[in-house]
Amino acid sequence: MNYSTHALSVSTPGAHNFIIEQFQQACARRTCTLSLTANENILSETARTLGQNRHYERYLFNAQAIDGQRYAAEFNGMHVEHFPEVETLKALATQAVQAMFNAPFVEYRVLSGVHCTLSVLTALTAPGDTIVSLAPASGGHFATGPLVEKIGRHSAFVSLTADGQIDLEQFARLLQALATRPAAVLLDHGLTTRAIAIKPLRALLNRQGLERTLIIYDASHTLGLIAGQAFPNPLDDGADILQGNTHKSLAGPHRALIVARRADLAAQIEQTLSAGLISSPNLPGLLQLFVTLVETRHYGQAYAQRMCANTRQLHAALADLPGWTLHPTDTHLLLLEGEQARQAAQQLNELGIRVNNKQVNGRDCLRFGLQEITRLGISSEDLDALAHIIRHVLSGVANGGDRIRLAHICQRLNQIHYSFDQEACQ
Fold first, then answer.
1. Residues 78-105 pLDDT 10s
2. Do 248 and 221 contact (CB within 8 A), yes or no?
3. What values do phi and psi take at 381, rounded to 5?
4. If you count Cβ atoms within 10 Å of the first and of the last residue's Cβ in the chain, which end, N or C, has fewer?
């Protein structure tokens, strides 16, 4: 349960003004703040406006339209409103997903990355099964192990090698030691700077007689790159399920997707969600997701290419920092390893550059993501200026001029690129 840690004395008549003033001040500050966090992005105004429409703050059940009726549908024997315009937009989004990921089946009702994992594992595995996922020290999601255990499965971890690939020798030993053969391998990487090769993993499982073991690839960080053909599609290399949240390199709302090529797996997931893991999928966010997916089909390749190009530019600008080690990258993420990463993250956030610090195999690092500033259309010149500011902070020589230069960069990032917003302005 949440509880307040702040002793506020706000009288009821003044509460409205207090709330508004607090957020006005915060919004003024945030207009001079730049996000380099790897786990966030920014919606287009087109998607945001559609989702904020008061007429769609409604339930949307997985209902069947009634023959001969336009606005009436049925769900579990209950007559509910039908939204034909939503179905039209959903059809466009489905066509976009099918084209971008080369897969016929897509599930939109999941609400987050963790809800994805819960839904897929509940649908495709059984109590008592073993689920192997990435070790948190190798970048695996912190919530996966506890979630697996909570739903009555057994959790085991596989590690990555120094070059970011699955440690197949360790995995082979793990398979021999497990009391039960794994029902699924979940690759839930949160530090994806290199593609994880799926084919060697599939080959190892097959050699061990585990042809039925599922490979579930969580591409929360790289969905936008996959959609834009700047990153390999795991489904092409032997993954059974592609899943992930939709607000990182895919510039959508805080939601998720599940994509599959196998009809049997898609049906199991759909039935499990409908049987109790979801009621209404939050229609405002769903509309925002549909718009984002259609936008991505139109602009996703250019966006993905620019994300990676900007990352290469920032990588080159930070490569020779004393006391820091920059990891190689093929994506929109940068990992900058250094003993002062925690302190540096605090200093950057205080200055107005939002970043995260993480650990890779017990070593502290900063994790930068360039997806949001790319969508805001940062220029090469402003990216160089941003690199200069970051160098100052990490070298301990930041000054008031850096805050002013950062504010000037932020003022120029006032339009959403790679979106339908551009067409609305023409």
1. 888 888 999 999 999 999 999 999 999 9
2. yes
3. -65, -45
4. N
User: DSSP E strands: which ranges in 232-319?
Assistant: 241-247, 251-260
The residues near 243 (Cβ < 8 Å, ≥ 6 apart) are 110, 113, 116, 117, 120, 216, 217, 218, 219, 256, 257, 258, 259
Name the phi and psi angles at 41, rounded to 5: -150, -170
Domain positions in the chain: 51-296, 300-425
Radius of gyration of the chain (CA): 23
Give the sheet arrangement for strand 182-187, strand by strand.
105-107, 251-260, 241-247, 214-218, 182-187, 130-134, 154-158
Q: What is the pLDDT of residues 216-262, one digit of tens each?
A: 999 999 999 999 999 999 999 999 999 999 999 999 999 999 999 99
What letter represents residue 47's amino acid?
A
Mean pLDDT, range 349-353, rounded to an integer: 95
**Token digits of residue 37:** 């966090």
The confidence band for 417, taking pLDDT boundaries of 50, 70 and 90, is very high
Give every CB contact of residue 345 below 8 A, 6+ residues apart in sequence. 355, 356, 357, 366
What does the pLDDT look like over 172-185, one tens digit per residue? Answer: 999 999 989 999 99
pLDDT band at 11 (very low <50, low <70, confident <90, very high): low
Q: Determine contact, residues 310/383, Cβ cutoff 8 Å.
A: yes
Q: What is the pLDDT of residue 77?
A: 85
Give me the torsion for CA of 231, 157, 245, 215, rounded to 10°: 60
How many C-beta atoms surround the C-beta of residue 99 within 10 A? 11
As a whole number of angstroms, the distance between CA 133 and CA 120 comes to 14
Backbone angles phi, psi at 221, to 5 degrees: -80, -25
* Under 8 Å between Cβ of 243 and 257: yes
Distance of alpha carbon 234 from its chain centroid, rounded? Answer: 16
DSSP 191: S
Residue 142 main-chain phi, psi, to 5 deg = -60, -25
pTM of the model: 0.94
CATH of domain 51-296: 3.40.640.10
Q: Among the CATH numbers 3.40.395.10, 3.90.1150.10, 3.10.450.50, 1.10.8.60, which is that of 300-425? A: 3.90.1150.10
- Please give the pLDDT value at position 8: 58
Four-CA torsion 351, 353, 354, 358, nearest 10 degrees: -90
